[in-house]
Design brief:
The chain is α+β, with helices and mostly antiparallel strands. The protein contains 47 helices and 10 strands. The longest helix is centred in the last third of the chain and has 19 residues, at 736-754.
């Protein structure tokens, strides 16, 4: 046992604690270093400060005698230990101890200087003698500098660091600038620019922020503008100066306004010059010799009129003077009063009486639309056609490489009329094809052989035409076209983006039809998931191909990924679809009676099963109960909570395949613009006092292993045909009444055939036929083979807990 080492170790531990060193320092430093350093700490009575130092700094302290002396001196000069922690984290010890300690101590002791900027102060300001005023401004000057600058080069602070102590930089004066860097450099290098900006700042009463336009005007003529600003400073009273500067900056015409002011004041208009600071109207009238008509007053009008007067838009001013009645009738929400419209998009001097009238119907335009038109030198007519459309239409328009405006407008009108442009489409590819020939010619000449082709699928073909053009002439049906268009990238490109080998890229349609069962990835996943045998596939090959070409594999696979617990229900539905027995599954046995807990005759069941349809011009309405059309109800004509992809209540989607539910679709020019759920149920007037006990839960029949259910006992309630809320998108305003008339005409026809009562959601109140009235009615929540079901008119989602019960609401009834 070495008693000497034990004594040294015990002494080290005792002195370590007394000196305020971290216990873990023994793992980093030798006992000799600790003893020596602790002795120095105790000698300098610095244990309390050392205790606050971080362990990394304590280690450096013990290892570096020069650093020890430097830190002890900082402590003696009143520098807190926490500031030492901060500064040594940012600057190497060997570098810091090379700085003059008095200046370092002054900076570290100044509470106005945040830890964030300690390194900057020590590197660039330790050798500059700042006044107390400058010291007070510098922290905010640095904060503005580092928050606004894009160019963080150190040479600027090394050469012009004192500039950040000025009021111009340390205030909010420059914070609106986008090109902050250029302004700072010009201020540092050009005394004239600095002086002119200083004059603006002081005359404003330190209360204004300049923009890039103001800075650029001053930077272009700093001497002339500065001279005129000094004259104006002497001309106006202290009370008038801030108002004058605000008006001057707001008019964005500094040199013209200042020189005009001086000339007019010196030629005898001194009183008018003092009066013009009252408001913008007085200001504009003074400078541009154009009296502001009292009728035009109003904040939304003033901006436009002042712009027109100050920019000498004489043709526009003459237009509104000659058509005052039209101009005054424009609502304040008209796009004409949006500053972006008249300053960046359309030359208002080009407007005519017809355009002025049109502005009455053109409301405020979203910023994303306006920005697309910025400085494009386009006509009013182009803007008028595109401003009410989604942004994609304007983006597509500006990608068209068609010289004549009329030809470009003809092309985009066809796309607008078809309503087939969707988010996420490759606009550049579409524009390239539309620049070759209009969409109507593509549809009537190139795609005319594809039976039942819809405009949206046609546009998808155009989007991918460079990849699939060689396949187009061999596409037979709309289902094939949809599959090819939507799968173009998957067919011709590897998942990582590079082209597949030529042998695959050059396949024709027969190759694709032949290979689809072997190569479509989503079908292969479903085949494995549902354990469809090779024998089953061989027996149902044609229907499976149609299923894939109609996006069936895609829809079901996406839904299955999100609804794994519905795998068995989906298997049964898909099995029935692929074997051509889906209607047998949907209306299986006496499922309809079980769902309604009500006797339904075979005749009534057949009437309910028969899907009605009607056509009127470009409108077509029909009942739908097929697997895939019903699976799409949350996607068309717009996304809803039942979307098979993202719907909040997508779990309820399978309930739409119950025997008592269908979907009503309505299309306009081939595009679905309305859908509404319809269901056969029962009910009675008034409110139910007691809810019946629910029967056992139902499930979809397994046609691969058929089991018949048993009937339910007869009830006496009245059968009801219920029309849920309609979801619409793309119906022209002037056709909405006609559309709703078609909806109610079909529902009334169906109710008459079934001898049932027609009940509708109150969302149709505006469109209801005269014979329907508003009343309290109890509606039966039918049993569902899918568990949860979504009923728009009964507060949304209903689970198995609710089924078999009544719920009372106010509805529209015959």
């Amino acid at each position: 046992m070495n008693l000497r080492k034990i004594r040294i170790h015990r002494k080290c531990c005792r002195m370590l604690l007394e000196a305020g060193l971290n216990k873990k320092i023994t793992e980093r430093c030798s006992e000799q270093r600790i003893l020596k350093g602790a002795g120095k700490i105790l000698e300098n009575k610095a244990a309390q400060q050392i205790r606050e130092l971080k362990i990394d700094l304590q280690e450096q302290f013990l290892e570096n005698p020069k650093l020890q002396a430097y830190i002890f001196e900082l402590f003696r000069k009143g520098v807190p230990a926490v500031r030492c922690n901060s500064v040594f984290e940012k600057i190497e010890a060997d570098t810091l101890i090379g700085y003059e300690i008095d200046r370092v101590a002054d900076i570290l002791s100044d509470n106005r200087i945040s830890n964030e900027f300690l390194e900057i102060y020590l590197r660039y300001y330790r050798s500059i003698d700042l006044t107390e005023t400058e010291k007070g401004r510098l922290p905010t000057g640095l904060k503005s500098y580092f928050s606004c600058r894009k160019d963080r080069e150190d040479t600027f602070l090394a050469e012009h660091g004192r500039l950040l102590c000025s009021e111009l930089v340390s205030s909010s004066f420059l914070l609106k600038l986008q090109d902050y860097d250029t302004c700072l450099k010009r201020m540092a290098e050009d005394e004239g620019v600095f002086a002119a900006l200083q004059a603006v700042f002081e005359m404003s009463g330190h209360s204004i922020q300049i923009d890039d336009d103001t800075f650029q005007q001053i930077a272009a003529e700093p001497v002339r503008i500065g001279k005129n600003l000094r004259w104006a400073e002497a001309f106006f009273t202290e009370e008038e100066k801030p108002a004058f500067i605000k008006l001057l900056i707001g008019n964005h015409s500094l040199q013209y306004d200042l020189e005009t002011l001086r000339r007019k004041a010196e030629s005898g208009h001194e009183i008018e010059a003092h009066r013009m600071v009252k408001d913008r109207i007085a200001y504009i009238s003074f400078f541009y010799n154009n009296p502001f008509i009292d009728q035009w007053r109003g904040e939304y009008m003033e901006g436009l009129i002042i712009y027109a007067i100050s920019r000498k838009k004489k043709a526009f001013l003459r237009l509104i003077q000659e058509n005052t009645d039209i101009f005054m009738s424009l609502p304040c929400t008209s796009v004409l009063f949006q500053a972006e419209f008249y300053s960046h998009i359309v030359n208002i001097n080009s407007l005519n009486r017809k355009n002025l009238t049109q502005c009455g119907k053109m409301k405020n335009c979203p910023a994303e639309i306006l920005e697309i038109f910025y400085d494009k030198d386009r006509t009013f007519q182009e803007f008028a056609i595109l401003c009410d459309m989604p942004a994609e239409y304007a983006k597509l328009y500006f990608l068209l490489e068609i010289p004549r405006v009329d030809d470009r407008l003809r092309v985009i009108r066809e796309i607008i009329h078809a309503g087939c442009l969707k988010n996420g489409m490759d606009l550049a590819s579409i524009a390239g094809q539309l620049s070759v020939r209009p969409f109507s010619q593509w549809m009537q000449k190139i795609f005319s052989h594809i039976e039942g082709l819809e405009p949206e699928v046609g546009l998808r073909l155009l989007e991918n035409y460079s990849r699939i053009g060689h396949l187009v002439w061999d596409i037979r049906t709309a289902a094939e076209a949809r599959y090819i268009a939507c799968s173009a990238k998957d067919l011709l490109y590897h998942s990582e983006g590079y082209p597949l080998p030529c042998a695959y890229r050059d396949k024709d349609m027969e190759d694709i039809r032949e290979a689809v069962l072997r190569e479509n990835p989503e079908w292969l996943k479903l085949q494995d998931e549902f354990q469809f045998t090779e024998e089953f596939i061989a027996e149902n090959e044609a229907r499976i191909r149609n299923f894939i070409f109609d996006d069936g594999a895609h829809i079901i696979w996406i839904y299955l990924q999100r609804m794994r617990h519905k795998s068995e229900e989906l298997r049964r539905l898909v099995y029935a679809e692929l074997t051509g027995r889906f209607r047998e599954l949907k209306y299986f046995g006496n499922d309809l009676e079980k769902e309604l807990d009500y006797p339904v005759s075979e005749l009534d069941k057949n009437v309910w099963m028969k899907n009605l349809w009607e056509e009127k011009g470009d409108l077509r309405i029909w009942e739908e109960d097929g697997l895939l059309p019903v699976m799409r109800i949350g996607e068309v004509p717009c996304k809803t909570c039942l979307s098979y992809k993202t719907g909040v209540y997508k779990e309820c989607l399978l309930a739409c395949h119950d025997s008592n539910k269908k979907v009503l679709y309505l299309s306009w020019k081939g595009k679905i613009v309305l859908r509404a759920a319809i269901r056969l149920t029962k009910g009675f007037f008034g409110k139910a006092e007691h809810n019946k006990k629910q029967p056992p839960q139902l499930e979809f029949a397994d046609l691969s292993h058929r089991k018949d259910g048993e009937g339910e006992k007869q009830k006496t309630e009245k059968l009801v045909l219920f029309l849920e809320k309609a979801y619409t998108a793309g119906i022209p305003e002037n056709m909405q009444k006609l559309v709703m008339e078609m909806v109610f005409r079909m529902m009334e026809q169906k109710a008459k055939l079934l001898n049932t009562l027609l009940v509708a959601s109150t969302s149709y109140l505006k469109w209801k036929p005269e014979r329907m009235h508003y009343a309290l009615f109890s509606v039966y929540i039918s049993r569902s083979k899918a568990g949860s079901q979504y009923l728009d008119s009964l507060d949304g989602s209903k689970s198995v807990v609710n089924e078999g019960s009544y719920q009372a609401h106010n509805f529209l009834l015959e």
